[in-house]
Known about the structure:
Blueprint: H1 2-29, H2 35-38, H3 51-58, H4 61-92, H5 98-106, H6 113-126, H7 133-141, H8 145-157, H9 160-168, H10 173-184, H11 186-201, H12 205-210, H13 219-224, H14 234-268
Helix pairs in contact: 1-14, 3-14, 4-7, 4-8, 4-11, 8-11, 8-14, 9-10, 11-14
Amino acid sequence: MKLRSFTYAVLVVGCAFAIFPYFLTVLTAFKGPGQLSETLPWEPGLPPSVAAFDRLFGSGFGGYLVNTALVTAGITLGQVVFAILAAYAFARLPFPGRDVLFWVYLSTLMVPPVVTMIPLYLMMQKLGLVDTWAGLMLPTMLGTPYAIFLLRQFFRSIPVELEDAARIDGAGRVRTLVSIVLPLSRPILVTVTTLAVVANWNSFLWPLIITSSEDKRLLSVGIALFKSEIGVDYNAVMAGSLIALVPLLVLFIVFQRFIVRSVAVTGLK
Length: 269
């Protein structure tokens, strides 16, 4: 009983530390300009003010929001489609050097993304894609090692006999993938899609490097660069962070059971 009470106490403390920054974000977003200096960070501003949101959308924040939604949708779609094709090839199609190629590709997860930023930028510069939508999206649109790994592990857990039966009935590889494998892979597809949405929605360094014009600015870059005449407008920054957080929070709440289930299955298999 004492051990259980101690465990719950530790979990509650850990949960409080994890939630506290988000709590401060909400409080700061609804404070007026004067309330930020007149109150402690964990004290609410009374009465609550939406002035920060008005200043935020008056500065072009709505455009950043639309840009981010479109770019996230495009990159996520590309990542999921190409990851499915690559993972199925690594899981089911026999070809020379398949496993070696897979593990070599997977080893790129050990390379920090910042290491590849300069080579990627030089490539985009040579192709004339700096400050373009194509330059922004192409480097991450063709699949990621982690997504391919998760999908491959899940595909390998599906009984081969189901695919053999489909081929006996006359289905080809593509038909088998679309009609047999993908419907059985709904949990891992939801997980991969959710992870891709979160990563692309929060992407900061590459959009900051590859784009310079305001009409191609994304949410994370716009929030970081948001300033007023007297310096950084922390109320507006927190309001923007809150708006950026809400879609991801809703996404996780809606699909959390699929995420937990798919991670458990891939881990066990």
